[in-house]
Amino acid sequence: xxxxxxxxxxxxxxxxxxxxxxxxxxxxxVVCAVLSCYITLKGWSLMGDAVSHAVVPGVVVAYALxxxxxxxAFLFGFGATVAIGYxxxxxxxxxxxxxxxxxxxxxxxxLVLSTKIPxxxxxxxxxxxxxxxxxxxxIIQTLIAGLVTLVVILVRRKDLLLFCFDPNQAKAIGLNxxxxxxxxxxxxxxxxxxxxxxxxIILVIAMLVTPGATAYLLSDRFDLMLAISVATSLLSxxxxxxxxxxxxxxxxxxxxxxxxxxxxxAMIFAPxxxxxxxxxxxxxxx
Amino acid sequence: MTxxxxxxxxxxxxxxxxxxxALYNASCHVxxxxxxxxxxxxGGGKSTLFKSIMGFLEPNQGRVSIxxxxxxxxxxxxxxxxxPQADEVDWNFPVSVWDVVMMGRYGYMNLLRIPSAKDRRLxxxxxxxxxxxxxxxxxxxxxxxxxxxRAFLARAxxxxxxxxxxxxxxxxxxxxxxxxxxxxxxxxxDAGHTIxxxxxxxxxxxxxxxxxxxxxxxxxxxxxxEDVFTEENLAxxxxxxxxxxxxxxxS
Lengths: 286, 251
What we know:
Shape of chain B: globular
Low-confidence stretches of chain B: 241-251
CATH superfamily of chain A: ABC transporter involved in vitamin B12 uptake, BtuC
Mean pLDDT of chain A: 92
CATH class of chain A: Mainly Alpha
Number of domains of chain A: 1
Number of helices of chain B: 10
Largest sheet of chain A: none
Strand content of chain B: 15-25%
Oligomer: heterodimer
Number of domains of chain B: 2
CATH topology of chain A: ABC transporter involved in vitamin B12 uptake, BtuC
Helix content of chain B: 25-40%
Order of helices and strands of chain B: EEEHEEHEHHHEHEHEEHHH
Strand content of chain A: under 5%
Distance between the termini of chain B: 41 Å
Structural class of chain A: mainly alpha
CATH superfamily of the largest domain in chain B: P-loop containing nucleotide triphosphate hydrolases
Largest sheet of chain B: 6 strands, mixed
Distance between the termini of chain A: 49 Å
Largest interface: A-B, 24 and 33 residues
CATH architecture of chain A: Orthogonal Bundle
Number of strands of chain A: 0
CATH class of the largest domain in chain B: Alpha Beta
Shape of chain A: globular
Low-confidence stretches of chain A: none
Strand order of the largest sheet of chain B: 6-7-8-3-9-10
Radius of gyration of chain A: 20 Å
Structural class of chain B: alpha/beta
CATH architecture of the largest domain in chain B: 3-Layer(aba) Sandwich
CATH topology of the largest domain in chain B: Rossmann fold
C-alpha cells in the first residue's frame, strides 16, 4: 500500500518534462498565491480576469515579431488596464461595464489576429495552458516575470496593503496612491504572464483569486492569510500535476479543480467564517 | 498668529460627476491651536469639504492650504492626520488594531516600512492614550463602535500631525467614548494642535469647540462659538430657504 503510494509520487519523476512541470507549477502557484491576497482584498478579481484575457493579442503579435511572448503579453495586459482606467474616468459608465467592454474587445481582437497571422501558436495552449510541454525559453520568461512580481510585492507589501485597506490614509500621509494603483496593476499583468503557461488564459483568474479567497475565510491576520494562501496553492499545483499525469487530464484544469475543492472545504468548515460555525453561532443567538 | 497658519480654504467649488453641485465658493479659515466644529445638515457638503481639504477629491475651483503649504506638501511632511467616518472602513479586513495604528507611522519609515523602536513606542503610547492597550491584538471588526473610533483616533495620534481632521467622530459611540474623545481633543488643542471636527451632535459643540463653521452648500458663517453658534444662525443653516433651495433631489 505504502509502496504503491510512494510509486504514485516517484514514478512520474523519471520524466524530465514532469519534473519541470512540477517545479514550474509550484513556482507559479507561489507567485499567484501571494498576489491573490491583495487581489481579493482590493476587490480586483474582475480586473484580473480582464488582464488575463487581454494578453491574447500580445502573445500573437509577439510570436509574429519574434520577440518573447512575455513581453507582448505584458504590454497588452497592462495596456488593457490603462484603457479600462481611461474609459472609466472619461465616461459615466460603471467599472464592471467598462471592464466587460474592454477585455472582450482585446480578447476577440487576439482571436482574429491568431487566425490571420501565420504563426505556429497553438491557440488551445494559450487558452488552457501547456505546462507539460513547456519549453526552456518559456520557463525563463515565466521565472523572470514571477521573480519581478515577488520582489515588487515584497518591497512594497506594506504600502500595497495600506492601499487596499485605506487608500485615503495612504493619501493623508503623503503616499502616491496613483503609483500604488499602477504598481498593483503591473504585478497583476506580470503574474498573469507567469501563470499563462501553467493554467492558460481562461483559468489564470482562478490561480489569482481562489487561494486568497480560501485564506480570507480562514484568517483574520494578513500574514497568516498569506501563509494559508501559499500553502493551498502549492498543494493544489503539485497534486494537480500528479493527478493530471496519472489520469491523463489537462494540468491547469486539475490544479483549479483542487483549488476550488479546498475553497469549498474552507467555506463549509472554516472555524470562524465557515457555514457550519455560522449556523452554530446563529442557533446560539436565536 | 499669522493668517498663513492653520487651514485656509479659498473659494472652493465642487461639482460631482452627476452634475450635482455639492459646494460652491466656500472660503474659511481654521485658526491654529483651536478646536473648530464644522456644522451643517446632511447633504450640506461637510464630507465634501473634508475631502477637498484632505485632497481626496480635486475641487473644480479654489485652493486649500495647510500651514501655508499646498495640501500634498503638507501631507508629505506628516502635518495632517485624518480620522475617517466608520462607514468608510472595511471592518472585515484582516488587520489588527496594532497594525492600523502602525499605519499612522508609515510616513516616517524607510521604503520597506520597517518600524523603528520610536515607531513602536508611539504606537504603544497612542493606544494607551485612548485606552485601547488591551485590544491591540484584536481584529478591527471585533471591536465595538466606540473602540473602533478610538483605534482610528490612536492612528491619528501616532502620526503626530499638527492638524487633525475628524469626520463625524461621535456617530455610533457611547457617552463614555464621546467624553474620552473630547478630553483628548482638548489636551491636543492645549498642546498646540489644530483640530477640525464635523458633527451632527449640536448639543456638545458649545462644550468644547472654540470656533464654529456653519456649512450648507457654502460657508454661511464662521467665527467664535459664542458669536456664531446662535439659534438664528442654526435656523438659517438647517431650515432656512437657502438650505432647502439647494438640497439635491437626486440622492
